[in-house]
């Protein structure tokens, strides 16, 4: 199929890096007008210019901070003012603050605000418009670690678990209105998320170890590995799917992983 999102407007938060950026590029390639939400003004402007120069359509209305309701509202109002509708919301914005040298309480507050509250702010800035049109697709980003952790990350995983609860509650309410709500649960994906944990050779060693011992497919994922499933959930290929929380992690969450085998003192077999 070609141009699966032709004629649609997609608001993507976290679009100035990582998974959100990959989704923005793919959605634009598939014909959507992409509204780039992100705090990095330089990256936002550069990405919009790149997409527009390559024949796509993108807008960046300025810094978008999902923890600030007024900031989210400005982006939504700008998109509605120019295009009259938002067909797709892909909420990728979020991060952990555990590696930034903050005290525990501050790291907790900032992580919850960025992931849980920020997702809530974004969704409910768009939902009234979608209800009015009785149409829309919402994609929320959680994490494999919310319910299938390979290592503890208490605050981040708690916040992502809340995103999954939001997904299923919204899906139940909005299904009769023609609005679909689904959730992606990425496994280990190579983005700037990991830069807070290590760097250089140490980071590469860490990622190789994770791939070898935690991911059944044996490799770390890329941002593009998430963009594809996001496109599926944004397109009519998933027209009869709502309330789904989909693991996208090279087998993590779906099959008996090497990590689980190691923890249980068993050796993985082909049977």
Question: Overview of this structure, please?
Answer:
The protein has helices at 18-29, 41-53, 69-83, 104-133, 154-174, 200-214, 223-234, 258-263; strands at residues 9-13, 33-37, 57-59, 88-91, 136-141, 179-186, 245-248. Helix 1 (18-29) packs across helix 7, helix 3 runs parallel beside helix 4 (104-133) and helix 4 (104-133) runs parallel beside helix 5. It is globular. The protein has eight helices and seven strands; from the N terminus they run E-H-E-H-E-H-E-H-E-H-E-H-H-E-H. It has one domain (9-200, 221-252): 3-Layer(aba) Sandwich (Rossmann fold), CATH 3.40.50. It is α/β, with parallel strands linked by helices and 271 residues long. 46% of the residues lie in helices and 13% in strands. Mean pLDDT is 90; it is low at 261-271. Strands 3-2-1-4-5-6-7 form a seven-stranded parallel β-sheet, sandwiched between helices.
Number of domains: 1
Morphology: globular
**CATH architecture annotation:** 3-Layer(aba) Sandwich
Q: Return the CATH class.
A: Alpha Beta
Beta-strand residue fraction: 5-15%
Question: Strand order, biggest sheet?
Answer: 3-2-1-4-5-6-7
Helix content: 40-55%
Oligomer: single chain
- E-strand count: 7
Q: State the helix count.
A: 8
Secondary-structure element sequence? EHEHEHEHEHEHHEH
Span between termini: 36 Å
CATH superfamily placement: NAD(P)-binding Rossmann-like Domain
What's the alpha carbon Rg, rounded to whole Å? 18 Å
């Amino acid at each position: 199929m070609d141009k699966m999102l032709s004629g649609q407007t997609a608001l993507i938060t976290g679009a100035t890096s990582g998974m959100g950026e990959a989704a923005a590029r793919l959605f634009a390639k598939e014909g959507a007008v992409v509204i780039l939400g992100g705090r990095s003004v330089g990256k936002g402007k550069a990405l919009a210019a790149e997409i527009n120069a390559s024949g796509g359509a993108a807008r960046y209305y300025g810094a978008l901070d999902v923890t600030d309701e007024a900031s989210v509202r400005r982006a939504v109002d700008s998109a509605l003012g120019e295009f009259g509708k938002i067909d797709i919301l892909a909420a990728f914005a979020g991060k952990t603050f555990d590696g930034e040298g903050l005290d525990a309480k501050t790291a907790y507050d900032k992580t919850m605000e960025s992931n849980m509250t920020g997702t809530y702010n974004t969704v409910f800035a768009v939902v009234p418009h979608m209800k009015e049109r009785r149409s829309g697709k919402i994609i929320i980003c959680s994490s494999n670690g919310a319910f299938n952790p390979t290592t503890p990350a208490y605050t981040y995983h708690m916040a992502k678990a809340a995103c999954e609860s939001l997904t299923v509650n919204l899906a139940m309410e909005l299904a009769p209105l023609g609005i679909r709500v689904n959730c992606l649960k990425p496994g280990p994906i190579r983005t700037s998320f990991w830069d807070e944990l290590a760097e250089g050779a140490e980071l590469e060693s860490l990622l190789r170890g994770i791939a070898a011992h935690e991911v059944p497919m044996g490799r770390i994922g890329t941002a593009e590995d998430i963009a594809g499933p996001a496109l599926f959930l944004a397109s009519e290929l998933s027209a009869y799917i709502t309330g789904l929380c989909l693991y996208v992690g090279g087998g993590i969450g779906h099959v008996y992983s090497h990590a689980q085998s190691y923890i249980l003192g068993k050796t993985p077999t082909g049977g």
